[in-house]
Amino acid sequence: MAYRVLITDDSPAMRSFVRRVIELSGFELSACFEAGDGAEALAVLQNEWVDAILTDINMPGVDGEELLRRLSADESLRGIPAIVISTDATENRIARLLALGARGYVTKPFRPEALRAELERTLGVPSD
Amino acid sequence: MTDTTIHAALSSAVADVLERMFFLEVLGEAAEPPPEAETVTVHLSFDGDSPGCFRMRIARPAVKVVAADFLGEDPESLTDRQSTEVTLELANMICGAVLSRIESSATFRLGTPQIETGDTGKHGSAEETRYTVDTGNGTLTVAIQMETRTCSPTEKYAS
Amino acid sequence: MADCKVGNVSGQVLATYALGSCIGLSVYDPKAVVGGLLHYMLPDSGIDPARSLVNPYMFADTGIPKLLEQVCVQGASRRRLVAHAAGGASIMDPQAIFDIGKRNYLALRKILWKAGILLAGEAVGGGNSRTVRLEIGSGRLWLQEGGGQKELVPSFPQKGGNTWPTGS
Question: pLDDT of B33-84, one tens digit each?
Fold first, then answer.
């Protein structure tokens, strides 16, 4: 099975890192979209279906929390699992994101294996 | 908020970030390089319950090595742009990790990290807490200044 | 001590012993039924390049690429490799100013990341010496530590519930 993912982070370096982890975790990617903030992510999602969204929180413009809010408000988008990858590991933040429908959360800094575990928990172990 | 607490948060955050995502062992505090040393400096502000600013100063020879380790590439194959992007993200991650340690129940929001060009005169203020490590290819210094350190009610209205 | 074994015959068992601060790296391709086991002692051959020419398996940076090369020559595919690490213990030495076990482990992580391989599981750190056995037929990996033996299965959560947040 091939996967389509959307990686949202204002850091191109982090987007590269996350993409690499996804690929090394055995998820064959038929499409990997990248966005620099929530607005760009929503623009991608206007035209493309994805199997998962990985998103940072602290981004200029439409941030990760607002992105989650808009995803859950949209019937056609709310079913897409979102994994948050953020430096913010405060209790307040995590509770809010859970309430907004985030399916997974990885705190920066993270081991690649930790993101893989979250991907497998959300999407299942990738098939050959 | 004591200087010791912030210092401990800086050292723990730096070690955590460098070990987990850059596979670098930090051996303990090192001497800070002089202002004229060849370094790249990143600055970012944060706001929320305890606003302030964060700076990271990294030796130029360390930049490409650290970036290559993060991206899983050879240093020679990296562009300057890639090195810069990783350097900015390194500062972002360390700052976030420090703030999470200092204020676990507070809300904070990080600004966009920026490379400081030229001599901005910001070579350390008395209110900053600083910490330096040796990366093996040069030093990395982090510094944080938080408003609550100088603006707590007891300090403000003391004597 | 510093060595590398590769097997491609069902029934073979590769073993490496007395992993103190050293690292034992096991890789296994379940489809090709090929596995390898490397035991290295130090992170960086730069401290003794001449020695690394005589025994590349002594160092992480020369030994790991050799291990991968050898299993691939036997038919393994890098993308299919299931990798585990054991060792990297902190052996208390008053003369030492750094933790060689930890350095060995970080060197492993760095080299595997560059090689495009994530660890499926690990048993590292602490103060115990370890022995590892890899069964070529089944790919099962056995860990002996502190007088007991157990199978080293994926130790990063794979499926099912997980506590938030993860990062380790």
Answer: 888 889 999 999 999 888 999 999 999 999 999 999 999 999 999 999 999 9
Catalytic residue among C6, C14, C19, C22: C22
Asked whether residue B79 is domain-assigned, the answer is yes
Domain membership of residue B36 as a residue range: 3-151
CA distance A107 to chain B (A): 9
Q: Tally Cβ neighbours within 10 Å of residue A109.
A: 22
**Closest C-alpha among C114, C158, C152 to residue C25:** C152
Query: Does the C3-151 domain belong in CATH 3.30.1330.200?
Result: yes
Looking at residue A128, its pLDDT comes to 58
Where residue B92 sits, what CATH number does that domain have?
Answer: 3.40.1550.10
* Partners of residue B70 in chain A, C-beta under 8 Å: 13, 17
C neighbour chains, 3+ CB pairs within 8 Å: A, B
What is the CB-side half-sphere exposure of residue B138 using CA atoms within 13 A? 16
* Optimal mutation site among A25, A111, A127, interface C, most CBs of chain C within 10 A: A111
Determine, for residues C166 and A21 on separate chains, whether the beta-carbon distance falls below 8 Å: no
Nearest-angstrom CA–CA distance, A35 and A37: 6
pLDDT in tens, C81-120: 999 999 999 876 656 667 899 999 999 999 999 999 999 9
Query: Is C4 marked active-site?
Result: no
